[in-house]
Amino acid sequence: MTPGVNTSADLEADDAPSPEHNIRPLVDTALLSDWRGSGKVVHSAHRIYEHLISLWAPGAIEAAHDLGVFAKLSTGPMTGDQLAEACQANRRAMRVLMDGLYAYDIVDRSSTDDGPAVYRMPEEMRECLLPDGLFSLVGKIEYDRQLAWPAWRNLADAVRHDNRDEVGELQLNQINEHNYASLVRGINFWAPPVVEALRGGFETLDWPTDRPASVLDVGCGTGLYSQLLLRHFGQWRATGLEAPHIASIAEEQAERLGVAERFEVQVRDFWTESWGSGHDLLLFVNIFHLQTPESARELLHKSKQALSENGMICIADHLVTGEQDAKSIQDRFAMLFAVSMLATGGGDAFLVDEYDGWLAETGLRRLALLDTPMHRILLAGHA
Ligand SMILES: C[S@@+](CC[C@H](N)C(=O)[O-])C[C@H]1O[C@@H](n2cnc3c(N)ncnc32)[C@H](O)[C@@H]1O
User: Name one GO biological process term (predicted).
Assistant: First the structure.
């Protein structure tokens, strides 16, 4: 096992994160009386208020990042005063910030009767909040600071006009290469459960994996999905298609994960340049939500040409099943992801029915739909 790479399959039952470590409520609605009757309005106001203060979480975490709090705490436990001095900040204000991070379960705090509180960063948080970890969220923090804050502030404008160009056509998502350089590192943590579910899908479909296979990872980002697959399937080779600045990130990471000999990145524009042919697995992870219906169709058309006879297309993305009553976690996340795409300049979370229609038009068909914590995986092959 490579240090820093665990999939949930590697976790012993006792190590599995317990659900109470999820995001915890900040409003004790159990204390609201009569929430079904005359207290309904007040109860609703509490719920809306809790949504509105979601802004506090990135505010506090990003301030600590900006101040260098996580870097300092990674060297060992510190008091608020020690942190204030190390980060050149005000003592009282630093204590307030640290208690906020403690409230969010980001740092631990131990207090004694006679001494000041001591803050410490759990090892798993260190991996997430410092820049060098494979699953670091620092790139996501940087991306949010560069792009997301102003984008969300202006969402109403996007709703007024939609993400359309001067001739009224829907446009693809407009994130630039500089922003992607941050973002792709900050979303690596999505990969392990997606790859685990994908492996389960191969097994369920009886799709042979114990043979040489060619993987094409379209818009591979850091390439983690194909790199994790290569670590499981020793006879496979993978090629990523990427923009130049991101390609070097993927190459370095392939070295780090020990799969560089079987992983290459080709600096190619996946719209205008060749994908080759005869690929056994085409991977599109977080690519379809950047599309319009027309460009999604085009990707499937190109896939059809590039896929081997018994090859499989894997689309891992935020797909909506549209089961109105169920409102599953995946659907709720996907619907909100669509809002985030609207805020950041294009893209959508498409319905599974839309995918099925595009697949059928292209001579392809859906083989399976799998759930993962924040994504669904649509597996497809030739019809
Ligand atoms: C949302 S990221 C997804 C990255 C990766 N698949 C993942 O899920 O971690 C989209 C990636 O597609 C790449 N990309 C977008 N348009 C591209 C194009 N026309 N040709 C090659 N790569 C492209 C971007 O540079 C970016 O790294």
Answer: methylation
Q: Say if residue 244 is in the same domain as residue 349.
A: yes
Query: Which residue's CA lies nearest to atom 12 of ligand 1?
Result: 219
pLDDT of residue 7: 39
User: What pLDDT is recorded for position 9?
Assistant: 42
9 CA distance to ligand 1 centroid (A)?
27
What pLDDT score does 2 carry? 41
- pLDDT tens track for 45-67: 999 999 999 999 999 999 999 99
- Exposed / middle / buried, residue 298 (Cβ in 10 Å: 0-12, 13-18, 19+): middle
Rg (CA), the chain: 23
Q: Given the CA of residue 188, which atom of ligand 1 is nearest to it?
A: 9
Domain that holds residue 28: 8-129
Are β-strands 118-120 and 279-285 bridged in parallel, bridged antiparallel, or unpaired?
unpaired
ipTM reported for the complex, 2 dp: 0.99
* Mean model confidence pLDDT for the chain: 92
186 and 83 fall within a common domain = no
Query: Relative to the CA of 283, which ligand 1 atom is closest?
Result: 6
pLDDT tens readout for residues 22-44: 888 999 988 988 777 778 999 99
Q: Find the residues whose C-beta lies inside 6 A of ligand 1.
A: 180, 184, 187, 219-221, 241-243, 246, 269-271, 285-287
Ligand 1: atom nearest CA of 177 is: 25
CA–CA dist 376, 319 (Å, integer): 6
- What is the SS3 assignment for 273? coil
Residue 207 placed within a domain: yes
